[in-house]
């Protein structure tokens, strides 16, 4: 067997790495492949894809990694954890099959296409006694964590509000297979919102209710790159979403998530408190400058890096999961991912109903990450 899922000391010596099998060999796998060699806590052993040629191509470039069928990988006793990199519509199915096989699972965001599906994953995992983790792990980097430490240290006083802004004219300009961005389960909120909402919950705590509004301006999108360039894709989900999140702490966060607008000069994240304001780096990245403007101060100052995984990248959530004490929720864990999904789903529900919607789930504000340099 590989390393047990849970140890008692973040820096304790490794017994053996957590053996990873990846299902889904699309664009995003490249980021994980670049990170794995830097992590002694995990080891890639197998890959699978609905298109066997894609799995074979990945395995050919990774010494010792086997290309398997999806069913083979899920049943393989040499796989401790399934890294689920399938499209959002398949997240729950693969996660449930992995859990049923007695394997831990870590997925790309969102945890599932709906909270109903996500709830089944968490319930099955609890019954099987296996761990669930979920991207984004960008919240573990020095950008969000330095901002978290500034808030925890009282540098802005009691938090009052936040703004989160993501504006782009659409992913079809660069993604060769953008169809899933424009169907239910996609759209700017469910695609990019997990980065922003996960950061807001990490910084300000869980959300109790939301108010939302949404629209879309185009019925089709034109693919701009790859073998399908020039082909049109139908749009069947909202592509511009705004929302107000009421945190349990009383802080209010305002979201703007758009695949319709052109650009913005707004900061990706701003946090405002009684005695100061923070500009927080893009939550789609792991690092970046955190800027503080104090009440009575003369300007913005860049805070020194003071928390988070130094030089982190996609895959550090797997390291953090592997080093999480047994019986403890990972920082990029299933409970946070479920809460974030319910918040986003509630924003869309509120937009459809035209009224405030309560968020039923709660999650613990994830434990802060001390300044940690894994080297490499």
Helices and strands in order, then pairings?
Blueprint: E1 18-23, H1 29-35, E2 42-48, H2 52-60, E3 66-68, H3 70-75, E4 81-84, H4 91-100, E5 104-107, H5 115-128, E6 132-134, H6 142-152, E7 159-167, H7 187-204, E8 207-215, E9 220-222, E10 232-234, E11 240-247, E12 252-258, E13 269-273, E14 276-280, E15 291-294, E16 301-302, H8 316-322, H9 334-353, E17 357-358
Parallel strand pairs: 1-2, 1-4, 2-3, 4-5, 5-6, 7-12
Antiparallel strand pairs: 7-13, 8-11, 8-17, 9-10, 11-12, 13-14, 14-15, 15-16
Helix pairs in contact: 4-5, 5-9, 6-7, 7-9
Descriptive tags:
376 residues; alpha/beta; Rossmann fold; Dihydrodipicolinate Reductase, domain 2; 2 domains; 9-stranded mixed sheet; 6-stranded parallel sheet; 9 helices; 17 strands; 22% strand; disordered N terminus
Structural account:
With 376 residues, the protein is an alpha/beta fold. The chain folds into 2 domains: 18-134, Rossmann fold (3-Layer(aba) Sandwich), CATH 3.40.50; 138-309 and 332-358, 2-Layer Sandwich (Dihydrodipicolinate Reductase, domain 2), CATH 3.30.360.10. 27% of the residues lie in helices and 22% in strands. It contains 9 helices and 17 strands. The chain has a 9-stranded mixed beta sheet.
> Low-confidence segments, ≥5 residues, pLDDT <50?
1-14
SS element count, helices: 9
Radius of gyration: 20 Å
The fold-level CATH name of the largest domain is: Dihydrodipicolinate Reductase, domain 2
Query: Averaged pLDDT, please?
Result: 94
Broad structural category: alpha/beta
Helix content range: 25-40%
CATH architecture of the largest domain: 2-Layer Sandwich
Q: Helices and strands, in N-to-C order?
A: EHEHEHEHEHEHEHEEEEEEEEEHHE
Taking the alpha carbons of the first and last residues, their distance comes to 26 Å
Largest sheet: 9 strands, mixed
Shape: globular
């Amino acid at each position: 067997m590989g390393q047990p899922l849970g140890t008692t000391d973040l820096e304790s010596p490794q017994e053996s790495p957590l053996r990873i099998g990846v299902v889904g060999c699309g664009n995003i796998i490249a980021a994980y492949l670049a990170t794995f060699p830097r992590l002694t806590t995990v080891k890639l052993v197998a890959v699978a894809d609905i298109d066997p040629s894609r799995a074979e191509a990945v395995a050919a470039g990774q010494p010792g990694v086997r290309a398997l069928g999806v069913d083979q990988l899920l049943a393989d006793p040499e796989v401790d954890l399934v890294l689920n990199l399938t499209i959002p519509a398949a997240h729950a199915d693969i996660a449930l099959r992995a859990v049923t096989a007695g394997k831990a699972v870590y997925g790309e965001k969102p945890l599932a296409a709906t909270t109903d599906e996500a709830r089944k994953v968490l319930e099955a995992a609890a019954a099987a006694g296996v761990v669930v983790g979920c991207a984004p792990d960008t919240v573990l980097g020095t950008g969000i964590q330095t901002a978290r430490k500034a808030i925890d240290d009282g540098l802005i006083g009691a938090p009052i509000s936040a703004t989160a802004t993501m504006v782009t004219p659409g992913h079809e300009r660069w993604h060769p297979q953008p169809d899933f961005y424009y169907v239910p389960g996609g759209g700017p909120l469910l695609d990019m919102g997990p980065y922003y909402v996960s950061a807001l919950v990490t910084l300000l705590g869980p959300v109790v209710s939301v108010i939302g509004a949404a629209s879309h301006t185009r019925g089709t999108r034109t693919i701009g790159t790859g073998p399908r360039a020039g082909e049109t894709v139908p749009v069947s989900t909202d592509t511009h979403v705004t929302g107000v999140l009421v945190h349990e702490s009383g802080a209010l966060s305002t979201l703007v998530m758009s695949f319709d607008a052109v650009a913005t000069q707004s900061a990706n994240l701003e946090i405002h408190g009684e005695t100061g304001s923070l500009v927080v780096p893009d939550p789609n990245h792991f690092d970046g400058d955190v800027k503080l403007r104090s009440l009575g101060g003369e300007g913005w100052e860049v805070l020194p890096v003071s928390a988070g995984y130094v030089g982190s990248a996609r895959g550090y959530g797997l390291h953090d999961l592997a080093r999480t004490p047994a019986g403890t929720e990972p920082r990029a864990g299933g409970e946070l991912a479920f809460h974030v999904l319910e918040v986003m789903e509630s924003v869309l529900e509120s937009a459809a109903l035209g009224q405030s919607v309560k968020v039923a789930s709660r999650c613990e504000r994830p434990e802060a990450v001390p300044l940690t340099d894994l080297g490499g």
